[in-house]
Amino acid sequence: MSTEFAIVMKEIGFGYHRKPVLQSLSLNLKKGRYYALLGPNGAGKSTLFALLCQLLRPQAGTISIVGVDAAKTPRQALAKTGVVFQQSTLDLDLTVEQNLGYHAALHGMGALQTRTAITRELSRLDVADKRKVKVRALNGGHRRRVEIARALLHDPEVLLLDEATVGLDIPTRQQINQDLRELCRQKALTVLSSTHLIDDIQPQDHLIVLHKGTVQLDMPCADAVSPYSYQGLSELYQQLTLKEEVAA
User: Fold this and answer.
1) What are the residues whose beta carbons fall under 8 Å from the beta carbon of 199, sequence distance 6 or more?
2) How far apart, in whole angstroms, are the C-alpha atoms of residue 100 and residue 45?
3) Would you say 209 and 217 are in contact if contact means Cβ atoms under 8 Å apart?
4) 103 — phi, psi (to 5°)?
5) Residue boundaries of the structural domains of the chain
6) Among residues 134, 138, 147, 142, which one has the least CA distance to residue 89?
7) Rg of the chain on CA atoms, in Å
8) What is the pLDDT of residue 246?
9) Among 103, 20, 95, which residue's Cα sits nearest to residue 61?
10) Were 61 and a residue from 11, 117, 198, 241 both cysteine, which residue would form a disulfide, CB within 3.0 to 4.6 Å?
11) Could you read off the pLDDT of 143-155 as tens digits, one per residue?
């Protein structure tokens, strides 16, 4: 298997109660790149993330994370992966530091390693001053930054973001989106970020469009639209996801 890929999904199939959700889906995500997974609600994005996080198992096909077969050695695959879910999973009654410390313990990190990693990631996400604050007292943007810091604590090679900016105000969304791209560059991290919001996508992203369980587009955003603007991407997206409804 080529060492240039961080995620390889081959012919993935999955459905609920005989209703297909993902159909023969294949994707190769290169190391150190930012991938934006765009698709309407019901496209299969959350199911795809659940498979990558091993909350679900593929009914067909294979998944590898940085060369590790997720089915054969799931713990090794998870150790290489950081995840931020759409719904917050922070304990509201614990401090930021306590939340991150619990995560570190789950990954078998020692006390010194944990303290160092917490300081590093909270500083990177500009929430170092919130270390001793209970999560309940944080606003939505700060909570999301803490969740991203937690996902990076064990130094993963892959970061999965499932609708990570949903519910945030526009300035906060824009800042977090900018910070995530910078994080990708700084750490040579592979990021797969799902969204249904066109303006979450930036021209330098690699764009994947998912619709009705199949990949409709898989290429650099700048190569997919002309001119390279959100208006152009919006038109392209509508062509890819609404063409069947318009034809009907």
Assistant:
1) 230
2) 27
3) yes
4) -60, -45
5) 5-80+158-247, 91-155
6) 147
7) 18
8) 43
9) 20
10) 11
11) 999 999 999 999 9
Do 145 and 126 form a contact (C-beta atoms < 8 A)? yes
pLDDT in tens, 185-242: 988 899 999 988 888 898 899 999 999 999 999 999 888 876 545 567 777 878 788 7
**What distance in Å separates the CA atoms of residue 149 and residue 170, rounded to the nearest whole number?**
21
Structure tokens at 139: 């606003």
Q: What is the Cβ-side half-sphere exposure of residue 7, based on CA atoms within 13 angstroms?
A: 28
pLDDT for the residue numbered 165: 87
Task: Please tell me the class of the 5-80+158-247 domain.
Answer: alpha beta
pLDDT, one tens digit per residue, over 16-47 is: 988 999 999 999 999 999 999 998 888 899 99
The tokens of 75 are what? 């713990």
The overall average pLDDT reported for the chain is 90
Q: Two tokens at 10?
A: 């081959």
